[in-house]
Amino acid sequence: MDTAAPGGGNSGRKVVVRVKRRPDTREEPRWEEFALDWRPHMNIIICLRDIAERPVTRDGHATTPVSYEASCLEEVCGACAMLINGVSRQACSTLVDSLEQPIRIEPLTKFPVVRDLVVDRSIMFENLKRMKCWVPLDGTYDLGPGPRISPEVQEKYYPLARCITCGNCLEVCPQVNENSDFVGAAILSQVRLFNAHPTGAMHMKERLAAVMGPGGVADCANAQNCVEVCPKQIPLTESIAEVNRQAIREAVFGWLLG
Amino acid sequence: MSTHPLTMSASKTDDQSAFFWRKLHSLSGIVPVGVFLAEHFWSNSYVLVSPEKYDAVGQELQTLPFRPIIEAAGIWLPILFHAGYGFYIWGKGKSNAFAYPWMHNWMYTLQRWSGLIAFLFIGWHVYTARFLTGGRSNFVTVHDDLSNNLYAAFYLVGVLAASFHLGNGIWNFLCKWGLAATTRAQRAAAYLGAAVAVSFTLAGILIVYSARYNFHPFARYIQQ
Ligand code: SF4
Ligand code: FES
C-alpha cells in the first residue's frame, strides 16, 4: 500500500543516490550524494526528478538539478542510458528496489559527456551513415512500389528494427574504445537488417564494402556483451555472425564469381 | 557521379586490409597452428606406448623431406604471425570482465592471457627441447627435463594455456567466419570448443605424466 505521498516521505525510508556530476566539461567530474524519500515502484528517472525538485545534497548543501536525458519513460526512445551501479542500462526501466544502495549513477563512458549524465551519441548516427544503413529512394523519377515482404521475413527481421540507439551495446563492448573506430553491435545489426530488406539488398555490395572497411565487422572480438545488455533483446550476436558470413562470402567468392 | 537514381556514394576506397588480416588471423589459429598442435600432441602421445616407439616417431618427424620449408611455412611463420597480430589486436581492446562478468566476456579476456602464456611457453619449449638438444630430443632428454619440478609445472601451464586457447579459438573462428550464425549454432560451437579444450588438456597432462614417471599404459599393444 502507498503510505508515502509522492515527495512526502511519510514512511521515513530513504534512497541514497550518488551522482557523478560534471556541470562543466572543462572541470573534473565530482560526486554528489542525495537522500531521497522512498516511494513504491521508484525508478532512476524518478530519483533524478526528485533531485531536480529539491536540489539539496545529503549533507544539506544547495546544488543544481542534475542534467539527464529521458523522453518516453518506457524503454522505447533510448535516451536515458547511463551507468547505474557500474552497469550500462536504461534509467527509466531500472527500479530502485532492485538495486544495492547507495546507488551510483554515472554517464556512459564511451561517448563524450555534454553535461552531467547527458552524453553525445551522434557517433552512432554517423556510423549508421558510414555503414550505409539506409535504403536510397530519392531519384529523378518515380520508382514505383518496392517488392513485397512475406510475413515470415517480416517476423524474422522485425526484432532488428526495434533498436533504440541507446548505446548500451557499445558501452559494454571491450572493442569500442578510444583506440579503435569499431562501429559496434547496433550498427552491424542494422547492416544485416538493410541487407535483408528486398530494396536494401540491391545495395548489399556497397554496404559490405563499407562493413569490410575500417571499424567494420572484423573488429568484433566476440566478447558477446552486447547481447547480454541490449534492452530490446535484439539477437546482436546472430546479426554480427550473419554479417560476417556475408562479408566472408564476398571476400572469398566475390572476386571469383562476381 | 553516377546518374542512377539508386546509387550510394562510392565506397570502393574503403581500406579492407584490416578485414583480411583479422580473418586470416582467426583462420591461422585453426589451420595451420591448431592442426600442428593436434599433430604435436598426437606424435608425443606415442610416449604412452613405449620410449622406443616415441623415439622412432621422433626420428620419423626429424627426417621428413623438405623439413625446414615445411616447418617455416607451416609452423614458425604462422605462429609468429598469429602471435604478433594477436598482440596488436589485444592492444586495441579494453577488457572489462570484472565490470561485466559474463562467461564469454571472461573468455575474451582469458583468450588474450592464454595466448600470451602459450606464446612464452612455446618460445621456452623450442629453446629447451630443440636448441639445447641440438634438434635431437628423444625420450631420455624429455624424461630428464620433466623430472625437474619447475619444468614439469611449466609444461602443465603451457598445455593448459594452449588447449584453452585452441578450444576457445575454434568457437571464435566459427562465429567470426559466420559458420555458426544462429544462437543455437553458436552454443553448439561453444560445446565443441570446450570439448577440444578439455580433451587436449587431458591428453597433454597424460603425456607429461607418462614422460616424467615412465608410465606406458599402452605398452601391452606391442607385447603380443
Ligand atoms: S542494439 Fe540494443 S543495446 Fe544496442 S543501441 Fe540498439 S537497442 Fe541499444
Ligand atoms: S526514457 Fe526512453 S528509454 Fe528511458
- Strand order within the widest beta sheet of chain A: 2-1-5-3-4
Distance between the termini of chain A: 68 Å
Number of domains of chain B: 1
* Element-by-element helix/strand order of chain B: HHHHHHH
Stated plainly, the CATH topology of the largest domain in chain A is called Fumarate Reductase Iron-sulfur Protein, Chain B, domain 2
**Biggest beta-sheet profile of chain B:** none
**Shape, per Cα inertia axes of chain A:** elongated
Could you characterize the architecture of this molecule?
The complex is a heterodimer of chains A (258) and B (224). With 258 residues, chain A is of the alpha+beta class. Chain A has 2 domains: 14-119, Ubiquitin-like (UB roll) (Roll), CATH 3.10.20.30; 122-257, Alpha-helical ferredoxin (Fumarate Reductase Iron-sulfur Protein, Chain B, domain 2). Helix content of chain A is 31%, strand content 13%. Chain A contains 8 helices and 7 strands. Chain A has helices at residues 44-53, 122-130, 151-161, 168-171, 185-196, 204-211, 225-229, 236-257; strands at residues 14-21, 30-37, 81-84, 87-90, 103-106, 113-115, 118-119. In chain A, the strands form 2 sheets. A 5-stranded mixed beta sheet of chain A has the order 2-1-5-3-4. A two-stranded antiparallel sheet of chain A has the order 6-7. In chain A, a hairpin with an 8-residue loop joins strand 1 and strand 2 (30-37). In chain A, helix 5 (185-196) runs antiparallel to helix 6, helix 5 packs across helix 8 and helix 6 (204-211) packs across helix 8. Chain A is elongated and about 70 Å long. Chain A starts with 13 loop residues before the first strand and ends with a helix. Mean pLDDT of chain A is 93; it is low at 1-5. Chain B is mostly helical. Chain B has a single domain (18-94, 101-221), classed as 3 helical TM bundles of succinate and fumarate reductases (Up-down Bundle). Chain B has helices at residues 17-44, 51-62, 67-92, 103-131, 139-147, 149-176, 183-213. In chain B, helix 6 (149-176) runs antiparallel to helix 7. The termini of chain B are far apart. The model of chain B is unreliable at 1-5 (pLDDT under 50). FE2/S2 (inorganic) cluster binds next to loops of chain A.
